[in-house]
Amino acid sequence: MLFSSLSFLLYFLPPVLLIHYFLPKKAQNIFLFFASLLFYAWGDAKYVPLFFALLAVDWLCGMGIEKTEKPWGRKALLIVGVVANMGALALYKYMGFFSGLLGNSQALSWLIVDRLPLGISFFTFQATGYLVDVYRKQTKSERNLFAFGTFIFMFPQLIAGPIVRYSDLSKALHEKRRPGARALETGMALFVGGLSAKVLLANPLGALAQEMKPLMQGDTLAAWLYMLSYSFQIYFDFMGYSVMAVGMGRMLGFTFPRNFNHPYAASSVTDFWRRWHMTLSGWFRDYVYIPLGGSRKGTARTVLNLFIVWSLTGFWHGADWNFILWGVWYFAMLMADKYLFPRVKGEKLLRRAWGYLSIGIGWIIFSCNIGEILPALSSLVSFRFQAQTLFWLREYALVMLAAAACCVPWIIEKGKAMLLRHGALRFITVMGALLLCLAALAKSTYNPFLYFHF
Amino acid sequence: MIKKAPLFWGVLGVLLLLLAGQGFFHGRQFSEMENRVLSGPPDISLSAVTSDRWGDRFESFAADQLPFRDGFVSLYTALEAAEGHRLVGGVVLGKDGRMFDRTDAYSKSNVLLNAKALETISRDAGVPVYLLAVPTAAAVYPEAVPALSPVADDEALLNAAAENTRLVPLLDALREAKGDAPLFYLTDHHWTLDGAYVGYQAACEALGLMPLPLENTEGPLPFYGSFYSRCPLLWQKADDFSWMLPEGVRLIAEEEEKEGLVDREGLKLRDRYAALLYGNHGTMEMINDAVAEGTLFVIKDSYANILLPLLARHYHRVVAIDPRYFSGSAAEAVINCKGEAILCISGISSLASSRALALLD
User: Fold this and answer.
1) Which of A196, A322, B121, B191 is the 20 to 30 Å CA partner of A35?
2) C-alpha dihedral (A346, A349, A350, A354), degrees to nearest 10
3) Residues 328..347 of B with a Cβ closer than 8 Å to A: which?
4) At what angle do helices A220-252 and A389-405 cross, to 10 degrees?
5) Residue (of A283, A340, A273, A334) closest to A312 by Cα position
6) What was the ipTM of the complex prediction?
7) What pLDDT, on the 0 to 100 scale, is given for residue B46?
8) What residues 145-184 of chain B have any CB closer than 8 A to a CB of chain A?
């Protein structure tokens, strides 16, 4: 189930919010656990056993690590837990890729699934982070199965994050959650705001990207339009989901960390990654980069560590070569940003411009097959134009302007402040946005069957 | 509490009202606007719920049975137009309320293959074939099409057809006939009775007939066609829908004699064009007892439905097949009915976007 589906908006969210709100403390985690299980099973019930298996392993390993005093025993349990999570991820997400490397070996083909278990990239990372935190004694383990299950599989952050640390939620998991009026108001405004970003901006811009993709080979304007529209699409799509998750968290009495902080206002490519998918960057920093030695072991080792982290970051985003290349691309751009630009005059402006170009080129690498990348990049500078592409520029000019405006922190913060001050304006804006989102969802499934077309 | 958190309860209230509305009114089975059967509640047995696509089926149900669905669709269509879109639901919004089809995916190779197939049928049946290819409204009213719109070059497609078969000249005649009366509907891809009359005159010239004037016309009725159903703009004006019923002509469709040439019940529905000749059939026949002899064999799509009653006045029999629904040998059908000529009446749309003619036996 997706947040931007009518099944979720009508059948799931309202009853869950209402029932959770009025339940006594003891029943809230149990209810939220089973609601999340329903959410998970709705998409693909066949993965419910995986849900329970990982839950059991992570829960038992967490408690075991805490109780065991012998270092080797603690380490062994940590390894069991991490291997279970990463094994599940490798099996379901990467088996097709590995099988391809082995020439589509028949031995592996039966393991390849056609549809990924919902949110597997997120909950396996969250559970791994939890186990490492317990191992490092940075947090206590969770003994209550329902509270633990709620932490790992809670539906708002199950499918697209944010990746939450146990210490961020442990307090809320053990107290009566009865969010006040302000939390409910803010939560609902965030939810509708995120839904609007997804449905009213990401989806139309995705349609433009889809139109431009076949045209961009040999048309510079189409290539630039593709790069721009896809950059906007992926931001509003992902940010929309994250903001919806944060909003739902608020309405359920949780405070999730922020996942995006105006990334397209970044002053450099380094700054971009401080603002984009912040919880994933934090995860890789805490659980991969620092254990590898971080920047404490000299320049060469730092560079190697960064290379490993960025290759893995790319691979996490998808099981294909273009995603690995995307990660390596960012490694290279970040290295240039770190070591090259400080020696150049006019560094500030150059870093910003280079940052934007790196991000845009990065999205082309991210969204194209490995064979499509070079032709697409060369189209950006081929200076060949097809007049017809101007139609699409004009067609989406207003939507792109609106999207660009929504990337400017000043505009967003002013808008937020204004809505916070004026209750009536807030009510009208959010209700209006909700109606437009419902209209967009109705239209997206509106499918005239034109057998009489000819 | 409601006073303190009006937004929370307001949004929740709207969603719960829609949910309740769906609970009470989920019995809508057919969408006339979309011309399709809507999804009903999905099966909730254990085996169904645990199947792979149950979530998708549930979403289809939730979306299809959304209360005020058509209103929501109109609202979003209005927003798209307000955002400056000239292409909404695959429909190009032109000047003066005129809508056009997006046709940039039309293929010249399809036209060549279809035209070649006509020549093969003609050769096998031993009678001449004429292609009356109906251009798109965009080719007839180019001044109303927004600049650089994704529409095909009809002239190039028609030239391709002329390479392989005898093409009846029509595009220039339609352009010259443009006046106050529209030749194509504003909201539908088909031509109007006036447009079809220009086509009728062109066909008469090719077949060596003397054109007769329009007579016994009926209508007009307000009409919102297929473009409108894809792009239901709140401020779109309706078309006038008229048709002609020649006296004494009978219709036999799929071996069943119909009551007249037009489906009176169908005329009450939104898609009035589908009422002409009771829609599309694999085989049909029009018999005019006022004319003693002569059989015209027609290979057609729906563009012919408004034109054939005009032609039926010249022949004892007009035998027609629709290649999309006809199975069998077209040449044999021509020989069996003793057709003296073959006239293919087809929109350039079907000639360029499908290979239905080429796939005829």
Assistant:
1) A196
2) 170
3) 346-347
4) 30
5) A283
6) 0.88
7) 77
8) 146-150
